[in-house]
Amino acid sequence: MAKQTTDVVVIGSGIGGLCAGALLAKYGYEVLVCESHSLAGGAAHSFEYRGFHFDSGPSLYSGLMDSSSANPLKQVLDALAVELPCYTYDTWGCWLPEGQFETQVGAAKFQDVLAQLRGPQAVQEWQHLQQIMEPLKDAAIALPPAAIRADWQVLRSARLFLPNFLKQGRRATKLTGDFARVYQNVIHDEFLRNWLDLLSFLISGLPADSTSAAAMSFMFADWYRPGVSLEYPVNGSAGLVTALVSGLEKFGGELQLNAHVSKIIIAGNQIKGVLLRNGQVINVKKGVVANLSAWDLCKLLPQQTGAVEKLRSQRTQLPACASFMHLHLGINGDGIAPDLPCHHIYVKDWSLGIDAPQNVVLISIPSLLDPSLAPPGKHAIHVYTPGNEPYAIWQGLDRRSADYQALKETRSQIMWEALEKVIPDVRKRCEVTLVGTPLTHERFLRRDRGSYGPALAAGKAIFPGPRTGIQGLLCCGDSTFPGIGLPAVAASGMLAANTWTPVDKHLAMLKEIGL
Q1: Which of 68, 111, 306, 328 has its Cα between 20 and 30 A from that of 229?
Q2: Cα(316)–Cα(300) distance, integer angstroms
Q3: How far is 230 from 228, CA to CA, in rounded Å?
């Protein structure tokens, strides 16, 4: 790289980092995003293998095309004025201990499933929950993340929204606790309690009694509204990443791949720049935004006392969610029904606990929506255990060893078991078989222990904000408020960018996106 000095370096091109970098570029800063991998996107990147295109991470998207959506990721795309075409669908396949069924997003549609599966009492409880969630949904979106910044100028940027937020009164205070407290006196049906635990786990990696009520209120606002549908970007996660990179470059920002930051340079309590693995130093005028896990950030900090050591002590002590197992398969698609749902959820045993290892499996067959993701007549499949694979059993294994290969074979069987519910002869159809482990996650995504992110229980702990106590160093991503998940990391990127931006430019951006 020829560049030696820039205003801002963003470490990591995950969704949070791309949102922060692109918005900072829009706000007029000279921005360089340094990505260690050869592909942009972090945990949301896509890769191609033998003609099949696979997502490495998220497969559930919503609120990206609706102009009224409160999704922070949609608001970033609007601010950058970039398009993200999506396919839409509304049906999931569910393979649960109670049996197999298909369900649709939308509160009323789910009632039909409940009526058949559990009877009228469960339907009444679900309707009651919807009544409770309605004002909470309003409270959750009353103060949009796009209006927030981590300095005193938030009084100006949030001013227009505060009256509506304060009007929510006690409802707003409920958002600070865990989701289970919202429904504990309302939902008694065992299946419904398990279902809400599952939804919470998919959002946060934690059960409902540890998942933020605010996060679930956002989810209810997106998934359980009239006429709702889920979305899948054209070209998969790569389509989303491409849109954000185009927004970054549109405003003069740069993305550098294969640019591994090995150290953040700090003098006293002031960020000076970053050191790359190839020996190059990039100096910064404004600072560094670290789109890293809490633990990976600490690996880049120099050994020094004061604010740096305080930050290291705080972040290294954060508890971590578990990791993932992945199957990426390219299969012969002959005879597979074109109306097969593209996403499926499998739960082995509710009694084990929703976050128990090898208990929940997600299946994504996005080529049913976007045929370009696989060669003609083929399908690309992504199967994964979402944040429930323990790292400890993999730690220290040599990836080239027989022991590692044997453990991959053993621990991947639950994913095959789930997928065979959907496509019974899938093993015979396979032309490409790739198995990913927590070590794969750790290696390619630069994720300490391959973790999904901090396991911070709502009501008992809060995610750190973007500020670090070190001048010129901000954080974003899933170790930063508001936490885990695509909408949350997009919000964290906005929060970082807004914090460093003159409030008049911030207000102009809010006006541009209609807030």
Answers
A1: 328
A2: 12
A3: 7
Q: Which two tokens stand for residue 326?
A: 């992945």
Tokens describing residue 1: 């790289």
Residue carrying structure tokens 């002031």: 270
Average pLDDT of the chain is 92
- Strands 91-96 and 99-104 come out as antiparallel
Pairing of strands 254-256, 261-267: unpaired
Contact call for residues 262 and 275 (beta carbons, < 8 A) = yes
Taking only Cα atoms into account, the Rg of the chain, rounded to an integer number of angstroms, comes to: 22
CA distance 411 to 421: 18
Rounded to the nearest 10 degrees, the angle between the axes of helix 72-80 and helix 237-250 is: 40
| pLDDT at site 196 | 93
- Partners of 378 in beta bridges: 332
Interhelix angle 15-26/486-499, nearest 10 degrees: 30
Whole-angstrom distance, CA of residue 233 vs CA of residue 236 = 5
For residue range 303-356, list pLDDT tens digits in order. 887 899 999 999 999 999 999 999 999 999 999 999 999 999 999 999 999 999
Q: Choose among 268, 147, 316, 140: nearest CA to 214.
A: 140
State how far the Cα of 204 lies from the Cα of 235, in Å rounded to an integer.
25
Which own/partner contact pairs does 81-85 have at CB distance under 8 Å and 24+ positions apart? 81/247, 81/250, 82/243, 82/244, 82/246, 82/247, 82/250, 83/243, 84/233, 84/239, 84/240, 84/243, 85/233, 85/234, 85/239
Q: Check: CB of residue 10 under 8 Å from CB of residue 17.
A: yes
Cα–Cα distances in angstroms (integers) from residue 162 to residues 138, 154, 167, 238, 411, in the given order: 13, 11, 8, 36, 50
**Backbone φ/ψ region at 240: left (φ over 0), alpha (ψ -120 to 50), beta:** alpha
For the entire predicted model, the pTM comes to: 0.94
**What average pLDDT score do residues 104-113 get?**
76
